[in-house]
Amino acid sequence: MLNPWRLQLLVDLQELGTVRAVAGRAHLSPSAVSQQLAVLERETGAALVEREGRRVRLTPAGQLLADRSRDVLHRLEQLSAGTGDAPSGTVRLAVFQSAVHALAVPAAEAVAAAHPAVEVVVLELEPHESMPALRRGDVDVIVTTTDLAGTELGPAVDLLPLGTDEVVAVLPPGHPAAAAERLDLAACAGERWTLDVPGSYMSELTTRRCRDAGFEPHVVCRLQNYLLALQHVAAGRSVALLPSLAVDARSDVVTRPLDPPSVRRVVAAVRRPSAAQPAVRAVLDQLRTTAGVGLRHR
Q: What is the CATH number of the domain that holds 26?
């Protein structure tokens, strides 16, 4: 009988691509992972991996076994989760910045009230960081957007749609462009801009929308903290594009939807084997309930 733990190492190798990455996820040394894969080859009587220089890749037999093992491991997780036990344990929930107080904190508090044995640990990770973290097994559940290049799903990731969040232009009080009901960004071609850090979802989106409007944004400030970005705009030092969830109603700024509109799809994502765990299911259910209040649904 094949050892499920060794099958998981093979599945991880298919997903992550390197023995070193598999070792990091499994908290083993690379040599220990290689030894276990060699044992699996002896058990199956087939060559499962082959070397290409300093890298390894799965053989056709290895690909087939990994594909079948994924289904088997998923069923084992379901059987383990179906024992009737109440949800318990720690769930690591990674969310983008604007969803921390809008979704994650209320959901974590509601889960704690309903399931005292479940602890939800909230981490702030932007979409370009959270999906790789989920695939590595560093977190259990993420709230992200599917609209960012580089957040491609692996074969073992499930999505739960939560709603949509419109991106808005954020302007200082009394700004002339605020006279429009919907803002054509060409009206802000000569403005000073605050953007998120390079490579982030909002930085890429803002740059793309400005270029689509015919200009390159004059960036005078890059801030990861949306509260600081709002303060910078409120002081009349710049303009910005931010998700609606990020705009604190107490901030002295004016917001306008864009023309054409820019709406991001917000989803929860979970690795398929983890989705069967009672504690993870409790978090997913509560995220959906909380999102029903804080997000638009289309």
A: 1.10.10.10
